[in-house]
Amino acid sequence: MKTLLLLRHAKSSWADPARADHDRDLNARGEKAAPVMGRFLYKQNLIPDLVWCSTAQRTVQTVGLLGRGFADDAKVIYARDMYMAAETTLLKCLHQTHDEADRVLMVGHNPGLECLAQALIGVDEHGLRGDMAQKYPTCALCQFEFDVDSWVNVEWGQGRLTRFVKVRDLRDDLLTGTHNVIRGTDDRPADT
Questions:
Q1: Cα 125 to the chain's mean position, in Å?
Q2: For a designed S-S bond to 46, which of 4, 41, 77, 142 qualifies (C-beta 3.0 to 4.6 A apart)?
Q3: What's the predicted TM-score (pTM) here?
Q4: Chain segment 15-51, per-residue pLDDT in tens
Q5: Separation CA 100–CA 97 (nearest Å)
């Protein structure tokens, strides 16, 4: 059994229009969102064995702000190929993952990350596909389970989508004291 976590980078800044897209930093909202998601991952025991991360500044910062264990305890592969990559390129990266890693986190960009998530769905027992298709906001996370022993065997339509989490919903849960978020569905506009 393999677990794949797909995390879109936190909200980035457009304050400096002369800065290259690859080099854009997180904005203040993004700097607050990433640690919230990191705490959720810790509480849910979802610390990855391996992290694939785009080389863009906003993805690197997102990984760094998730918490110390993500960069120190897990091996991080910074891959230029993941920067604004299509879903086919992201799947190729995943196929290169060593099989000792049972839980992998990929931190990347839309639209490729969302397209990858949609293409991997085989089983959606919680009805999350529609929520994800409606909006995959910054710093949102989805979780897949694959009944394979090797990452190279992960194919389109084979994943069991078990979780889709938005930071907005985690903030609500932190205020109410609940931590068992599977999905966030309400009519409020996204704040991430």
A1: 20
A2: 41
A3: 0.89
A4: 888 899 999 999 999 999 999 999 999 999 999 999 9
A5: 9
